[in-house]
Specification:
transport, Rossmann fold, Cell division ATP-binding protein FtsE, binds adenosine-5'-triphosphate, cell membrane, ATP-binding, P-loop_NTPase, alpha/beta, 7 helices
């Protein structure tokens, strides 16, 4: 029998991280952040505080100007780029600009992480269809992204982020373009991923979202992270 280590390595650790764009001022300063494995964290803060920039550091789209990032126990700075790419494939990401591939259908966009992982269409088709039905895109499976509404693009991006059951799920305003009912449904999806073991980090202005799940909430103000607090759900049970 193999016993789990008493203190498993956090999914992500940032130590004294700072970020500046080019020669501009530091937009993030002295960020200390640890995401324990299987944790659920919300990131809030006013527009321009640096939430999107911090998420981009977390999924290694940006390099910090100073400080250290450890992802899944690995010091990112010391890794070869092939290893960095392998670590990034363990992250599901939902970005504000969605980054869907315009010439691939909704189905193909969502299936892409599985295709890249070498799975055959036969093995994943029913999972992709089930997930698309769950996010309310069952009727748009053959559509190309440029023909989708903002909310449909967002749901497609979320489905793509979760289809491969990532170890770490990072989402930037994932309910920004949908009505409250669909927002609650999407939050259920994130909660379910978390229940299955994924570490979840969501940046949001949506206080309603935060109120519906028991999670740690971090606040960014002018590029600095404030002490954590745990927000119990205002309603009993898990996500709405
Ligand atoms: N590519 C870039 N080049 C230069 N400055 C940038 C770039 N991206 C963001 N910034 C600056 O970094 C700061 C933080 O921006 P960021 O988008 O991370 O904030 P945010 O909290 O996500 O804002 P919002 O809630 O409006 O999305 C802002 O001052 C912004 O102007």
């Amino acid at each position: 029998m193999t016993l789990a280590p008493p203190h498993p390595e956090p999914s992500l650790v940032l130590e004294r991280v700072g970020l500046r764009y080019g020669r501009g001022p530091e937009v993030l300063s002295d960020i200390d952040l640890s995401l324990p494995r299987g944790s659920f964290t919300f990131l809030t803060g006013p527009s321009g505080a640096g939430k999107s920039s911090l998420l981009k550091l977390c999924y290694l789209e940006l390099k910090p100007s100073r400080g250290l990032i450890r992802l899944f126990g690995e010091d990112v700075d010391a890794l070869k780029s092939s290893k960095v790419q392998a670590l990034r494939r363990r992250i599901g990401v939902v970005l504000q600009d969605f980054r869907l591939i315009d010439h691939l259908s909704v189905f193909e966009n969502v299936a892409l992480p599985l295709r890249v992982a070498g799975e055959s269409r036969n093995s994943y088709a029913s999972d992709v269809i089930e997930l698309l039905n769950w996010v309310g895109l069952g009727h748009r499976m053959g559509a190309l992204p440029p023909t989708l509404s903002g909310g449909e693009k967002q749901r497609c991006a979320i489905a793509r982020a979760v289809i491969a059951k990532p170890d770490l799920l990072i989402a930037d305003e994932p309910t920004g373009n949908v009505d409250p009912e669909i927002g609650a449904r999407l939050l259920r999806l994130f909660s379910e991923m978390n229940r299955m073991g994924a570490t979840v980090l969501i940046a949001t202005h949506d206080v309603g979202l935060i109120d519906h799940v028991s999670a740690r909430t971090l606040r960014l103000d002018a590029g600095r992270l404030n002490a954590a607090q745990v927000s119990p759900p205002t309603r009993p049970g898990r996500a709405a």
